[in-house]
Amino acid sequence: DWTPEHYVDSSVVALQRTIGPDDQVILGLSGGVDSSVAALLLHRAIGPRLHGIFVNNGLLRKEEFESVLHSYQGLGLNVTGVDASEEFYAALKGLSDPEQKRKAIGRTFIEVFDREAHKVEGARWLAQGTIYPDVIESVSVKGPAVTIKSHHNVGGLPEQMNLKVVEPLRMLFKDEVREVGETLGLPHHILHRHPFPGPGLGIRILGDITPEKVQLLQAADAVFIDALHQTGLYEKVWQAGAILLPIHSVGVMGDERTYEQVVALRAVTSVDGMTADWAHLPYEFLADVSNKIINQVRGINRVVYDISSKPPATIEWE
Ligand code: XMP
């Protein structure tokens, strides 16, 4: 019978057999469930010879970098946090096209990650939090729990540094990954986190990106996400967030007319993200979030709720 405890035990043995006694292993951490569970499993097997690299691309949620880094350190992981926000903002400057923004973010990530990876002496392995659905999506061949294959998400790093790839979760489905994570003591707030796109808020700020817009969106998004947690609605939706629209609209504050930005709230129910329905959140909840955002976030005077389902709309706006 499959149990998370057996999986942990047998993976630890397999990893210890595969990874040489002096080999160092590099892993990119994102704050997501998969990379976090992969890190804990490898840490269980090889301790501080696992070197986690957690990059702040300046497009994470409010205080996410600090809080997730703190959680990782609390778990005893050997993690380096790299704040590369300015580098990402520089690469994004003036770009409005969604695919160009994605490319700039991806390219910058590879540059930053490569630079950090090269600092790890004795690095022989690149670990990845690849899970089974990722495997069947790609053309790679099914293999044992510990396999060696080349990978493309991290650019040419494996070839350049002559690294072998290790993917300890590649036979697991998402719910199994969560069970393994729970067994390894991953905190609830990471274990049950909504999916979050790699390009982050970069594709939730429509049009070009500036640090000021990021701050504005982070503030509005935090009000929404905090309210979902406080009302117990967070775990009833599959994904949620705020989107900063590239338009201004008229409002009134006291005797003054305002001309400020609009935020759209998006929350969906889904099984796998392939199709999704807009979440039927209670009107009182939406009213409360709207009031809080408009009162607390200077620069936003209008909040709208996205009632489009996928298909034909997508979950993200870009
Ligand atoms: P869409 O918008 O296509 O999103 O309905 C489906 C799921 O994919 C996520 N998403 C991304 N994830 N890089 C990612 O890592 C991306 O460029 C990207 N675009 C969309 C989205 O958040 C949702 O979970």
From TrEMBL:
Keywords associated with the record: ATP-binding, Glutamine amidotransferase, GMP biosynthesis, Ligase, Nucleotide-binding, Purine biosynthesis
GO molecular function, one term: ATP binding
Record: residues binding ATP: 30-36
Superkingdom of this protein's organism: Bacteria
Pathway in which this enzyme or protein is active: Purine metabolism; GMP biosynthesis; GMP from XMP (L-Gln route): step 1/1
GO cellular component: cytosol
Known partners and oligomeric status: Homodimer.
Protein name listed in UniProt: GMP synthase [glutamine-hydrolyzing]
Organism the protein comes from: Hymenobacter jeollabukensis
Residue range from the parent sequence: 193 to 510 of 510
